[in-house]
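Notebook p. 47: complex prediction with WT7.
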Amino acid sequence: MLLGGTVTDQHSPALENLLSETRSFPPSAEFAARANAQPELYERAAADRLGFWADQARNYLTWSKPFTEVLDFSGAPTARWFADGQLNAAYNAVDRHVEAGHGDRVAILFEGEPGDTRSLTYADLKDEVSRAANALGALGVSTGDRVAIYLPMIPEAVIAMLACARIGATHSVVFGGFSAEALFSRITDADAKLVITADGGYRRGKPSALKPAVDEALTKGATNVTNVLVVARTEQDVAWTDGRDVWWHEALAGASTEHTPVPVDAEHPLFILYTSGTTGKPKGILHTTGGYLTQCAYTHSVVFDLKPETDVYWCTADVGWVTGHSYVTYGPLINGATQVLYEGTPDTPHKGRWWEIVAKYQVTILYTAPTAIRTCMKWGEQVPAEFDLSSLRVLGSVGEPINPEAWMWYRRVIGADRTPIVDTWWQTETGAIMISPLPGVTAARPGSAQTPLPGISADIWNDAGEPVGKGGGGYLVLDEPWPSMLRGIWGDPERFKDTYWSRFPGTYFAGDGAKYDEDGNIWLLGRVDDVMNVSGHRLSTTEIESALVSHDWVAEAAVVGASDDTTGQAVVAFVILRGEAVERADEAGEGHDVVAELRNHVAKEIGPIAKPRSILVVAELPKTRSGKIMRRLLRDVAEHRPVGDVTTLADTSVMDLISSGLNAAP
Ligand code: WT7
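Predicted complex, structure tokens below:
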């Protein structure tokens, strides 16, 4: 078969349909009266933006040395917030709740995929994080060092992040679905000294190994990794390198529960998180401490209306993504929340697993991604209907635009037509939520992220850098600095400037297209660069193309994101093969299931999430006279649309060839 999967005929709904969406869901009077965020918040922030942020930094955080400066943007585009203050992230997330008498409050309700459970109070968390911090110290990790974390969604993931923060080491979490190759490049780019991993985690009903990928990554080239700390989760057999590998439980068993958090400057690097850009090499997005934590905690409180004494919060994101950093580890714990942490997949052992968890723990706030909602829609509303979801009171969405149909389904089926929905727009780079309704204030408009939060300034500009105003469309920009903004790309200041600050000199360009409706609500329209959004995960077309051409059989490759009903976009690849290489493999008896081979190759190079949904073998690729691949035309093919304007192609017959090849596919 030529195509690795099906290319659907569905397109995302036309913009005109979106903008004619006028349904409005105002908060109930009851909700509004009790909400953390009141309408005055917008006025206060507008009247004195920096004073507003200074108030949030003092309200939500405990500083070991109070700050006197708020914003210093003299080194633009790198901002410094609260720069003369000092604090410790782990102290703020854990210790101070214990000191305030909340040590018995549950911090983490862990649900393993096989059904095992653990509950950790804030006092337990303080002991575990302290032990882990002491263990890291014993392995020679200290303030300023980098630590790579490659773990499943188990409490140790959160504990490891906080243990790093406690000693002032900078963590770089690598999603467990990334390959050894991807892990290696992240370990070397960040120059990590230690890797924290597990034997494996449970996924889709069986143990899935992690440690072998670390072992393999560390053979790919020179690194400065001196130790690998290994959590025993699945008890699978693992290879062991004496002197390098250390069991987590053994290291912690001998460690004291007493540990003094290291106060760091507000601008001390808290973490690096790699994300895909428009070139082949992922960017190490750098976040620092004071401003980042301020905005995480503030947004977590006002957007989700968290009441720490009574709410049970659940964000389904993995800590391998920024959502897991800001809304699993830092935001909720700084706010003293009780939260669910679930290890596995939504359909193991049955399609109602998430709803079973909501009912079991009486979850009140649920934060997830549109792709998950659309998947549940496909499974049918009879599945959630079997569970008691009446505890839910706020629903959140993040990662990609949520289409109005999915929004309405989420509200009606999961939220019993009662709960506010917050559609939160932000990015790895922004660190925390930027544009979102406030659940007790905003009349919600299905499908729109609506309004910049109090304290945040965003706008939509045209090509010339002029504001488009109501009803207009263009590029989303953030035209004032914000506390949790990235402080740079690790080791690459030039790329930082080029990527975000050069499209409109001096203003942050997010990479997203957007439009205002007549009421001034912001509608996000997806990326305008070569970045795809697959299931809320950012993938680079160029990165997948490089992975494909690194295979012997491939002479050239072009990748596009085609719209997909469930995942938002799907990876579709067009490849030109090296005929002789395929024949040689064939003769050597290696077979020539080109599509399967290349899909697996991408999984090996980047990770299973980057596997193309379909791979089309073609004889030529459409290029302009200057040699640039016209992805727009390939997208037309992938989405089964009539191919658009081909007049700028060097050879206009190429598209006929590709289209006929596609139609001839069995
Ligand atoms: C890109 C950022 C933020 C955590 C998850 C993704 C898209 C994100 C929304 C939303 C429309 C959204 C944007 C953005 N995006 N949230 N609510 N509505 N689009 O983080 O991997 O850094 O990706 O995701 O295109 O630029 P990320």
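Notes: The chain has 22 helices and 30 strands. Residues 1-13 have pLDDT under 50 and may be disordered.
Next step: compare against the earlier run before touching the bench.
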